[in-house]
Amino acid sequence: MSIRRITANTLSVMINGTAPPMVIDVRSDSERASFGWIDGSLNLLPSDIPAYLKNAPPERTTPLVVVCQTGARSAHASQLFADAGYENVFDLAGGMLGWMLLRLPLRR
Question: Which of these, 29, 69, 82, 100, is most buried using a 10 Å CB contact count?
Fold first, then answer.
């Protein structure tokens, strides 16, 4: 499956749409505490993704948007979901830094 990179603006529109995606934040607890997070996001470290997929997987057609601080870790984590057969995997280009630059809403 291919992974599509999306912008923070696109993710914001998706979140506010009629069928919001599942947002998976692969940053550490300390990063989330320091910088904030997208409301409703699931915190899941990349090393925990295989166990998550085995024990509580979302439907394979569920849109998944993977985010990290800058976009590097989310690219790797997105590939884990794609390799597991997920059809609608998105990677947030620029990560949470891009989200914050646009002053989009954060939880703290």
Answer: 69
Which CATH number goes with the domain that contains 80?
3.40.250.10
Neighbours of 69 (CB within 10 A): 22
- What three-state secondary structure class fits 18? coil
Q: In this predicted model, what pLDDT tens digit does every residue of 37-86 receive, in sequence order?
A: 999 999 999 999 999 999 988 899 999 999 999 989 999 999 999 999 99
Residue appearing with tokens 């057969």: 85
Flag whether 56 is in a domain.
Answer: yes
Q: Where would I find the beta strands (DSSP E) of 1-108?
A: 3-6, 22-25, 42-43, 64-67, 89-92
